[in-house]
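Section 4.2 – Deliverable D4.2 (structural model, holo form)

The reporting period included a commitment to supply a predicted holo structure for the target in complex with iron/sulfur cluster. Inputs used:
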Amino acid sequence: MKEKDSFIASYFETEFASATTSLDFQNPFECLCAILLSAQTTDASVNRVTPRLFKDYPTPEAMANAPLEDLKNHLHSLGLYQNKAKNLSMLSKILVEKYHGQVPSTKEELVTLPGVGNKTAGVFLLEQGLAPYFPVDTHVHRVAERLGYATKNMDPALVEKKLERTFPKEKWIFMHHAWIAFGRQICHARNPECQRCGLKDDCRYWKKYSSKIGK
Ligand code: SF4
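Output (structure tokens):
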């Protein structure tokens, strides 16, 4: 790693040592469902609906047979809930019909499931300990941009490749969680709390706006 990259990795290892997922799940099926439901909504919102959802429909077989209207009722407090209900239903049917009720374990298979894109597949694989990735959500993208690893409209898949080339593989899973925690707690999209941040010297945003936000 270059000096800058080592410094940044050390900062997160010191300041966000306990960063991990904030989604609640008990098994691979619940894990995949929870990640899918977390698109464009908070993990806390997902955790409020999943206990009852997973109690009523604990397996792909049960979810595949659930009335669509009932799935929508379970999910109606979440953004995009109608699409998410349809995706859960279709995804569960495919798991039953094609994968014997199991969630597949390769990215190539996962991205063929409804509602599962590159990021969701990567998060599932890392949460299940099946493969290391550095998936790029909105927090990771924003932090990467500010720290000079991405540009504003860069394709998340390219940002992921850049981050995976920059940091050693054994750090990817931790860094993914740590950057999300950092984005939520300090490096907000609006009004980041730069005074609390130890990465100012490497930050494009700080260099550009420090005079306005109180150096
Ligand atoms: S200095 Fe501010 S904008 Fe830059 S990484 Fe730190 S919190 Fe984010």
